[in-house]
Write a structure and sequence with these properties.
Radius of gyration of chain B: 21 Å
Helix content of chain B: 55-70%
Strand content of chain B: under 5%
Largest interface: A-B, 14 and 17 residues
Largest sheet of chain A: none
Strand content of chain A: under 5%
Distance between the termini of chain A: 51 Å
Order of helices and strands of chain B: H
Order of helices and strands of chain A: HHHHHHHHHHHHHH
Oligomer: heterodimer
Shape of chain A: flat
CATH architecture of the largest domain in chain A: Orthogonal Bundle
Structural class of chain A: mainly alpha
Largest sheet of chain B: none
Structural class of chain B: mainly alpha
CATH topology of the largest domain in chain A: Tetracycline Repressor, domain 2
CATH superfamily of the largest domain in chain A: UbiA prenyltransferase
Number of strands of chain A: 0
Number of helices of chain B: 1
Chain lengths: 320, 50
């Protein structure tokens, strides 16, 4: 638990509080939530749509602040996270916790007023799931932490859909399933070359607990399950021809990279990572390549769906 | 002799910045509630029963 690091060395600025909200995660959440909202295809007041997406972003920011409050002790010891405001001592832990609680209440309340109780309820569930179930419970307890915890990152398109229509049909959950199944290969590829840090602080990431070979095997299995799910929207009335092409070609590249990673020895030598998330030594290149492509692939999938629905391209509807 | 409890320039600037951010946040909250009310009620806002 955190709050040992509660004496700030430098006065906190508003930028530190913004950083508590993990702006990069917020931008990804805005993108996927907006995709869900647009794919719903319902006539929604644009002002309400903007406010709904704003609430989802603030909810994600609140989760980030609560996460940084609770995890400050381990953040301070890991290279990727030691510059975070609470871990670096710029913001008091109690201030981060207060910001997280206030923004959580604000985002859920405003969402309920603007878009209804289903969207607000899903947003509240997402915040609690990330801040309590993932951060306080799963993360330090089980190597399945990011698998189960990934649900929090996967829900924003469903919240966006619910904000637009007041319901969450199967296609909304298909978008959720894509992000949910994407999370394990994405994070485990990264953790193959950053596991030194996790091991040091006792976080049971898969490579630390099960070893690199087992992690590479599990990445391969998840990739085999993930790629068909990405293609599925083309057959459920959600995606069109362009989506089918992007999902199939991208899925093929994803599988090739996951296969190469399976056959590699990535994660078996300590210190494979250099400075930055993408700079690695030769042994970890296959892990880095899958990690980087996974981000591009997910972005392309959602951008294609968003683009198709914005220009009114006809879905394939092969199964309907 | 300098007072150890006196705020430094950096601390004063940081505090002012935080206060401005809180003010903007509160202002945004008020505007949001107003806009949601107008959009949700629409024309019904003047449709009273008395």
């Amino acid at each position: 638990m955190t709050p040992a690091l509660s004496t700030p060395r430098m006065p906190a600025t508003w930028r530190d509080f913004l950083q508590l909200m993990k702006p990069r995660v917020m931008s990804l959440v805005v993108f996927t939530a907006l995709t869900g909202l647009v794919c719903a295809g319902a006539p929604v007041n644009p002002v309400i749509a903007v406010i709904a997406v704003f609430c989802i972003a603030i909810g994600a920011g609140a989760s980030g602040a609560l996460n940084m409050w609770y995890d400050a002790d381990i953040d301070a010891q890991m290279r990727r996270t030691r510059g975070r405001p609470v871990a670096a001592g710029r913001v008091q832990g109690s201030d981060a916790a207060a910001l997280g609680v206030v923004l959580s209440l604000f985002s859920v309340m405003v969402m309920a007023m603007a878009a209804g109780w289903l969207a607000a309820g899903l947003l509240a569930f997402t915040i609690v799931f990330y801040a309590v179930v993932y951060t306080m419970w799963l993360k330090r307890w089980t190597p399945q932490n990011i698998v189960i915890g990934g649900l929090a990152g996967a829900l924003p398109p469903v919240i966006g859909w619910a904000a637009a229509t007041g319901e969450a049909p199967l296609n909304a959950w298909l978008l959720c399933a894509i992000i949910f199944m994407w999370t394990p290969p994405h994070f485990w590829a990264l953790s193959l070359y950053t596991s030194d840090d996790y091991e040091k602080v006792g976080v049971p990431m898969m490579p630390v607990v099960a070893g690199a070979a087992s992690t590479r095997r599990q990445i391969w299995i998840y990739s085999l399950l993930f790629t068909p799910i990405c293609i599925a929207p083309a057959f459920t009335g959600l995606g069109g021809m362009i989506y089918l092409a992007v999902a199939s070609l991208g899925g093929a590249v994803f599988l090739v990279l996951a296969w190469r990673l399976l056959r590699s020895r990535a994660g078996e030598t300590p210190g494979e990572r250099e400075e930055g998330l993408y700079e690695v030594r030769a042994g970890a290149r296959d892990a880095r390549n899958l990690f980087a492509f996974s981000i591009l692939y997910l972005t392309l999938l959602f951008a294609t769906l968003l683009g198709e629905h914005l220009v009114g391209a006809r879905p394939l509807e092969l199964l309907s | 002799m300098s007072n150890p409890n006196q705020e430094s320039d950096a601390e004063a600037r940081a505090r002012r910045g935080r206060n401005v951010a809180i003010a903007l946040g509160l202002g945004l909250f008020v505007i949001l509630i107003f806009v949601i009310t107008v959009v949700r009620l629409g024309g019904d806002v003047i449709n009273r029963s008395f």
